[in-house]
Amino acid sequence: MAQKIPATVVTGFLGAGKTTLIRHLLANANGRRIALIINEFGNLGVDGEILKSCGDATCSADDIVELSNGCICCTVAEDFIPTLEKLLARDNRPDHIVIETSGLALPQPLVRAFNWPAISTLVTVDGVVTVVDAKAVAEGRFAHDLVAIDAQRMADDNLDHETPLSELFDDQIACADMIVVNKTDLLSAPDADALVARLGTGARAGVQVVKTAMGALPVEVLLGRSAAAESDLEARAELHHHHHDDDEDDDHEHEHGHDEFESFVVERGEIADPAAFAAVMAEVIRDHDILRLKGFAAVTGKPMRLTLQAVGPRIETYFDRALRPDEARRARLVVIGQAGLDRAAIERALA
Question: Is residue 132 part of a domain?
Fold first, then answer.
């Protein structure tokens, strides 16, 4: 059976930075063909027009579908499922699908839809990414423009117009596989760190919380999470019961003058015991807050190459192919994390 196409759901309130994050993703797609489904509610498809103008080969107009008939979590059967079926029926099917929800949409009903028989064998939820406006959340407002949110909420009759934003925020956090704390350049470093710690405490075990400005996250961090979220609905169920509404993006003008993330390669000799080395990887990830750790290794006495992939605390290992006669029997691992990783300590631990 053909491998399922991965889909990433990007959610978060109006102005949190979802479109900016997706634009950065497209500009650094490294050859991946990415299709976008954008839930732009209302008459003006602002986000769709921004993304269509990005001019990248992975961001052609044919790869962008805009749903504007209301909140995506209220129109799953009418709009979302048929749209997804059309994308999956194309001859040039995408390598990855990114779904940007409207600003007040619940991700849970959308994730639940991936269990529909028509699509369940064709596509899987690679991960749910919740984007947070750091300054607004730190100030207890959850979104930078509350007037705009109220106007959008009132425009959709399907939505609960009285639900507190705090409850909607809780449900977006409850469904997340990764929480992106965006616009941290608007906070002091201690305040940003305190917010990250607070959100991490309130999230499910294993959920990664990362800081960024202008949505600048490495593609390897956002994609390839293999969460299969549609199979894990009980763990990410709504804390409150309601419906919601829409988004546009706020490209604030603050510059971030340093790289927020770093990556490096660790090389070592062949591995004697894959299970024991996976345990070492898990410990290193916990100790150094590593976002991704992946690579290949030769195993003592084995003719096959071992693939190692870690997303947060989840580590996957498998033999993918025979080692070539001219290949060195060694391990080569790529480490990805936020700037400031203790490279020397990580290299010692993995060696």
Answer: yes
Instruction: Check whether residue 231 and residue 265 sit in a common domain.
Output: no
Residue where the block lists tokens 């990556």:
263
Look at residue 247 and tell me if it is in a domain. no
As a three-state string, the secondary structure of 306-322 is EEEEEECCEEEEEEEEE
Instruction: Give the CATH number for residue 223.
Output: 3.40.50.300
Of 13, 69, 10, the closest CA to residue 41 belongs to 69
Q: Count Cα neighbours of 230 within 13 Å in the Cβ-side half-sphere.
A: 22
Distance CA 254, CA 77 (A): 40
β pairing state of 292-298 and 304-311:
antiparallel
Question: pLDDT per residue over 109-146, tens digit each?
Answer: 888 889 988 889 999 999 999 999 998 888 887 666 56
Identify any residues that bridge with 35 across adjacent strands, giving them in sequence order: 97
Question: Are 15 and 101 part of one and the same domain?
Answer: yes
What's the full length of the chain, in residues? 351
The pTM of the full predicted model, rounded to 2 decimals, is 0.73
Between β-strands 123-133 and 5-11, what pairing exists: parallel, antiparallel or unpaired? parallel
DSSP state of 140: T
Three-state DSSP state, 299: strand
CA-based nearest residue to 313, from 335, 275, 336, 286: 286
- Residue 226 is given by DSSP the state -
My answer on whether 231 and 267 are in the same domain is: no
